[in-house]
Design brief:
CATH superfamily of the largest domain: Dihydropteroate synthase-like
Largest sheet: 8 strands, parallel
Shape: flat
Strand content: 5-15%
Helix content: 25-40%
Radius of gyration: 29 Å
CATH topology of the largest domain: TIM Barrel
Mean pLDDT: 88
Number of helices: 18
Low-confidence stretches: 445-483
Length: 483
Amino acid sequence: MAEHILFLTGKLAEQRLNRVLQDLAPAFTWEVRNIGISVAALMTASLIRKRVTDAGGADRILVPGLCRGELEPLAGELGVPVERGPEDLKNLPAFFGGSVRPPDLSRYSVNIFAEIVEAPSMDIDAILDRARRYARDGADVIDIGCLPDTPFPHLEEAIRTLKDAGFSVSIDSLEEEDLLRGARAGADYLLSLRESTLWIARETAAVPILIPESHGDLESLYRAMDTLRAENRPFIADSVLDPVHFGFAASLLRYSRLRERFPDQEIMMGIGNITELTEADTTGINAVLFGLISELDINHVLTTEVSPHARTAVREADRARRMMHYAREMSSLPKGIDDSLITTHARQPFTDSLDDIRELAAAIRDPNYRVMLGPEGMHVFNRDGLVSGRDPFSLFPDLAELEADPPHAFYMGVELARAQIAWQLGKRYVQDEELDWGAAVPPERLSESERRSRAAHAVKEGDFKEAGSTLKARRKTSRKKKK
């Protein structure tokens, strides 16, 4: 007879746990029991004792890996073994000997409009290059911004060029003439129309984005929506997101009311007032904003990359929308799905204890330096011993042989600089690998031939990172000395 396992969990993880088990199709049978807490990781043995009085015919009880308290007394009371499972639900298949299937982040439910704010001052080639970059980073629509009192004689040419290149395009202006020019040139969307400018929608086939007539005036937005709905015209509604301390909280409530009143309406949120006007890393800001966007089922987002600190906002928005879509589909927290928005820290930065590092150092029998990190700082070791510290300058006097080996000294300088940055920030460090900055740094886009060419050049010129190990650097230096 197949084993029957009782899984204890909380409200937030219940549906996701059932899905994981169904996808796993295990040889055992199971029951998932929500014991009445929200977060499964907060489960304790004493709480289980109060809320679970029988094993329900199970042969074994599995509790979350972070469950605190002694489980053996609990097992004695319930009459079956009580064990901890993995700390993260995504590792449950591996716990039972299966393979861990990575999250499917290919899908999303939010379209990204990426605005080229300074388009009037850019030539056509520059606009096209920017559009291509935004598209690579995840943009679905290229938004052409118009600036007040700024001539834009090549507006029509810019839109036609983008359309010929295969882009969806929107025109963004407060000026009626700009919107008309853009629409007649082939723009797909108009940002933005008010109740008083609805006549523009009747002059073109472009889809309008509607905003309130004046700040916070939802009733005017509702009237404009009713008018276009009566005319059977498609549109998108935007109640406008305000900056922090200038109506941010109230503007969130407006979006909530808009969605509640019109559950099936396509809605846009422009997030630049938060990402651009808040002096904080945009990765975290985008994560939280897209959590709100996911909960409110907002369909379109307008984002910008004007401020230097927001220069990766489009790429971050793309990662955030995919992560939140997956989390919503799985009825899970947006955790343990994708780490590309964790750019300056790591969930588990230090994987080796000082005792582990000392044990490894004692087994080394060659002169090549290894660099590892622990909570205490940086550790450098080879067959001659181990030195530790938090500052590369304090370590170098103990690495005496580097004085006669400039290439190796250069290599160690690079590695220790990376290691120090990783230790200071709490990032993962692996020797001979660049630090992982997630969505903040674009992935390499070298062709295979370019990679081979670069590697060959690196070996020829003595770039020991490309050569792949400290040993190769040392051998190259030894050959030079022999000559």
